[in-house]
Amino acid sequence: MGGFALLTCIAVLAFVCKEAQLADPLLLSRVLTVSFIAATCFLLVKHFIKVMVPLFLRANMCGRDINKRGTPAGERPIPEPLGLIPAAVYILVLCALHLVGDHNGDARLYTAAMACVTFMTLLGFADDVLDLKWRYKLVLPFIASMPLLVNYTGVTTVVMPPASGRLVDLGLGYYLYMSLLSIFCTNAINIYAGINGLEAGQSVVIGIFVLIHNALNINPTVPKDNIELLRAHHAFSMDMMIPFVAVTLGLLVHNWYPSRVFVGDTFCYFAGMTFAMAAILGHYALTLLLFFLPQIFNFLYSVPQLFGIVPCPRHRLPTFNQETGKLEAVKSHLNLVNLVLWITGPMTERALCVLLLVLQVVCCCGGLAVRGFVLTLISK
Ligand code: UD1
Ligand code: MG
């Protein structure tokens, strides 16, 4: 699985490089530099997680693998939240890129985005340590998005429908839209979780599709107004996404079934905030939501439990059947993980994770197709 993920990333990167070269040779050298930094980060994260595991265990920062309950693996403490390592490496990369990048000519917004990702990581870590209640989790991303909100002086228009090139001015509503996107992306990843590899896996898949979307936009097939600005927005997003996918892959190596580390809320919030910032400053938030289809469905399906209409247990995971070694759906746990299990019947945790990631890929392909369809309709 690891080899397959790595090969896919390399193939996507080759596609990004090809599009970058067609757009502007200078952009190609930027992509290659960022990719080189990202590859180094992958190795750093992979290595440092191994180094940090004993420290987390010594500090008693660990969780139990609920989906292996009743087996020796279920009794073993699993260090958590190791999402701290990719987040720390990633923030360092953002600092380094700040020195060399042009950030659409707006360094202030870039710094604000960096502050949001950093603040969100800190609050995620606090959540992991303090185990906050659901109602507090919901507001943390709003607090973390403050650096961007108070610094934002850019456009308040969105492209509606996605990819159409038609601008709709939201005015003050744009600020609400930015904080809602941050709240949604962070929590959406955090509640679509609990299966070895799922949190980091879905983030890698979404990150890859964001990169494909960026590559398609630096070199659009249909004529667009203000092509230079469009290119700058998507190049900026690529700067954020290439290292993000790399550090997340470094985490996934250790988090894949059977998990040797848990990612924690630290990672879920860090990943969600990174997507939100890249999409806000890259001006493609609606397209990003097309890549979040499983998460949107999971959220809507969870609403009765999230808002207390139906009792919500601390964990809404499937049950592990010790005799068969498979996970079984719990009907009263209203989330996509249990719904898929209920439809397919019992399966192993690993197979379930693979299936959910395939579903993510299919939905992201669907998202790209919808975007392409809208684009052709508009350009006619
Ligand atoms: C969210 C979900 C909760 C789900 C949990 C799993 C909602 C409202 N909350 O809560 O239903 O159970 O995520 O992450 O939907 N764990 C595993 N295997 C894994 C990953 C995590 O057993 O592969 C368990 C471990 O005990 C770990 C714990 O989940 O310690 C982490 O849960 P936490 O992130 O604190 O849960 P929430 O984000 O509050
Ligand atoms: Mg969580």
Automatic annotation (TrEMBL):
Primary location: endoplasmic reticulum
Origin: domain of life: Eukaryota
Secretion signal, residue range per the UniProt entry: 1-22
Keyword field contains Lyase: no
Protein name per Swiss-Prot or TrEMBL: UDP-N-acetylglucosamine--dolichyl-phosphate N-acetylglucosaminephosphotransferase
Subcellular location: Endoplasmic reticulum membrane
Role according to the record: UDP-N-acetylglucosamine--dolichyl-phosphate N-acetylglucosaminephosphotransferase that operates in the biosynthetic pathway of dolichol-linked oligosaccharides, the glycan precursors employed in protein asparagine (N)-glycosylation. The assembly of dolichol-linked oligosaccharides begins on the cytosolic side of the endoplasmic reticulum membrane and finishes in its lumen. The sequential addition of sugars to dolichol pyrophosphate produces dolichol-linked oligosaccharides containing fourteen sugars, including two GlcNAcs, nine mannoses and three glucoses.
Keyword entries, A-Z: Endoplasmic reticulum, Glycosyltransferase, Magnesium, Membrane, Metal-binding, Signal, Transferase, Transmembrane, Transmembrane helix
Keyword Nuclease attributed: no
GO cellular component, as recorded: endoplasmic reticulum membrane
Catalytic activity: a di-trans,poly-cis-dolichyl phosphate + UDP-N-acetyl-alpha-D-glucosamine = an N-acetyl-alpha-D-glucosaminyl-diphospho-di-trans,poly-cis-dolichol + UMP
